[in-house]
Amino acid sequence: MSLLVIGTVALDNVKTPHGARRGLLGGSAAHFCMSARLFTNVHLVAVVGKDFPRKHIQFLKRQGVDTSSLIEGDGKTFQWDGEYKKEDLNSALTLATELGVLVGFEPRVAHHQKKLPNVFLANIDPDIQMGLLKMIQRPKLIGLDSMNLWINHKRESLVKLMKHVDLFVANDGEARALTEERNLIKAAKKLRRMGPKMIVVKKGEHGVLFYCDDFMFSFPAYPVEEVVDPTGAGDTFAGGLMGYLSTVKKFNERELKKAALYGTVLASFNVQGFGMSKTAPLKLTQVHQRMKHLIKFISH
């Protein structure tokens, strides 16, 4: 049931209409871990710099994350400065990005992690994702996330990688950019033809669309009255989705719907606070409570 994730571990400086925070633990893999850990044992593959606070590593360990393959590079930790405007909390304005130790990062995987059955390639350079995948022996389920930067600048590497994965997660903008289709159902079908058997399109406050050869479904987002900080919501969603899927034997419609609902609910907690302030203390009982509300909301 264990799950291996590769992605970024970052220091985030975030500004939203609710205030500003500096030096928050962030990054695609870190946010993913915060929700996936509720379902299974999570193994993190990432790199940080010499400036990375020890308290963040201790925090990840306390959350049950295996940090055996979290390496310290010679340089600065990946840092992201972003701002969300009141009129559009769905997209961040990137003020600055410092790649630091991500440049030249070559992932390593501990011996006990090479046979893990579930792998998620969270947002990072597709060449790094492929490098990691080559180290894993016959995984049962491989999930992939990406972003516009790689779609625009490393499209060939990303398209090649997509042929090797089972599940592809993208937001609506990324799905459109990669397929050049405005209609999301057409985009999902085109993504399916690129390799992955299961396509998940995240639509922010408008919910999620799932597509595979046998069926398709869509859910709204959980109705959140006040969004504080959306950073990492998509990664938190992916962690819930993949975390739950790593515990099931069959990927049928019922289980996939449940996985999408878990991801949706966990993302709704994430946006209600800065960084991981709302996802780190979560227990499954709270998640199930909110899930009941969401199902009730959908079925009425």
Describe the structure in your own words.
With 300 residues, the chain is α/β, with parallel strands linked by helices. Helix content is 35%, strand content 26%. The chain has one domain: UDP-N-acetylmuramoyl-L-alanine:D-glutamate ligase (3-Layer(aba) Sandwich), CATH 3.40.1190. Strands 5-4-1-8-9-10-11-12-13 form a 9-stranded mixed β-sheet, sandwiched between helices. The longest helix is centred in the last third of the chain and has 18 residues, at 253-270. The two termini are 35 Å apart. The model has no long low-confidence stretch (mean pLDDT 96).
Can you tell me the number of structural domains?
A: 1
Oligomer: single chain
Beta fraction: 25-35%
By CATH, the superfamily comes out as Ribokinase
N-to-C series of helices and strands: EEEHEHEEEEHEHHEHHEEEHHH
Radius of gyration: 18 Å
The major pleated sheet works out as: 9 strands, mixed
Q: How many angstroms does the end-to-end distance come to?
A: 35 Å
DSSP summary, beta strand count: 13
Mean pLDDT: 96
- The coarse overall form would be globular
CATH class: Alpha Beta
Low-confidence parts:
none
Tell me the strand order in the biggest sheet.
5-4-1-8-9-10-11-12-13
CATH topology assignment: UDP-N-acetylmuramoyl-L-alanine:D-glutamate ligase
Share of helix among residues?
25-40%
Q: Which structural class should the secondary elements be placed in?
A: alpha/beta
Architecture in CATH? Answer: 3-Layer(aba) Sandwich
User: How many helices does DSSP assign?
Assistant: 10
